[in-house]
Amino acid sequence: MRKGFLILSAVSVLLSTQSYANQKVCVFDLLGKAGESYKLMEEWSLASRAWGAQVQLLAYQDESKVDKDFKDGLCDAFYMTSMRARAYNKFAGSIDAIGGVPNNEIAQKAISYVLDKRNAKRLVTNAGKDSYEVAGIGQIGSAYIFVRDKNINTLEKAEGKKFAVLHYDYAQKVMVNRVGAVPVMSEISNFIRKFNQGEVEIVAAPAYAFKPLELHKGLGTKGAMVNFPVVNVTADLVIRSSKFPDQFSEQSRLWFVKQLPKSFAMVKRMEAEIPAKYKMNLSKEDRVKYQKILRDGRMDLTRQGIYDSTMMTVLKKARCTIERTNFECSVSGE
């Protein structure tokens, strides 16, 4: 009897393991397997074995293909920018709200807060038969505005200029329209190329893209990087809950939080590598003007349901904890 029980137990464990084996995780990285995002996910996949998974990573340089393959069931999980992943979880995806996270210190606080166990329920989205869960958030870095002509140094001078925006992020289109620029619908795989080839005059991108995508070509001798972060870019790991073991997401989120110091150190290094000759600082007056227009746009987009209102409140508290003298800390809203 005991021998039979042991055999049944062994078979049960084997079947349980097999049911959670070989999860396919589609990973977007502009640089494919050579990129830092993919390398982070390689470390994660090794760690995930201890949580009962046997992950197979699939590298993509086309984010739209990741989204399509996940919807078609070819991926059990994905890792891609929060701007696109927001469709699967608005709470986590709203960290990337325009102007919501103006520096790395606030970004680290925001990501740590979202991944905290108190928000576990907010990170689950039920859609028909599917249940999606955010199992991690990685930092890519602040996006800065790059211009082909440094004379475009005020909001007024951006009027009528072509600005590359990611077509699936409604927020970008709204903000570009607000400053009177002309939004040019683009994909994450080609928006820098359009800038470098002169098809657009303005683009927003993180330091992560500067060197590998040769942004210096678009800047030439007349261009500049406006040294004012407009969006904090993160990436979300979203899984189909049914394809992974119980407690997997919780352990995965803890792992991502532990990686944050290393991720932010990488971002700071990349920002420091951008030559000083390209960096253009705004006057204090213009900085406040930028903050106000971003705030107005962010609040409008929240009212429209694009951003999560709870996350907007959290981000404002974080900003005002770090920068107590900021004008917005003495006014209501968010």
Note the total helix count.
Answer: 13
The helix-strand sequence is HEHEHEHHHEEEHEHEHHEHEHH
**Structural class by sheet pairing and helices:** alpha/beta
Reported CATH architecture of the largest domain: 3-Layer(aba) Sandwich
**Terminal residue distance:** 65 Å
CATH class of the largest domain: Alpha Beta
**Beta-strand residue percentage:** 15-25%
What's the domain count?
2
Query: What Rg is obtained from the alpha carbons, in whole angstroms?
Result: 21 Å
Helix fraction? 40-55%
Shape: globular
Q: Can you tell me the CATH superfamily of the largest domain? A: Bacterial extracellular solute-binding protein, family 7
What number is the mean pLDDT?
91
CATH topology of the largest domain: D-Maltodextrin-Binding Protein, domain 2
Q: In this structure, how is the largest beta sheet organized?
A: 8 strands, mixed
Number of strands: 10
Low-confidence residue ranges = 1-19
Can you offer a commentary on this structure?
Residues 1-21 form the signal peptide. There is one protein chain. With 334 residues, the chain is of the alpha/beta class. It folds into two domains: 21-140 and 233-272, D-Maltodextrin-Binding Protein, domain 2, CATH 3.40.190.170; 143-232 and 278-330, D-Maltodextrin-Binding Protein, domain 2 (3-Layer(aba) Sandwich). The protein has 13 helices and ten strands. Strands 1, 2, 3, 4, 5, 8, 9 and 10 form an eight-stranded mixed beta sheet that branches. The protein has a two-stranded parallel sheet with strand order 6-7. It is globular. 41% of the residues are buried.
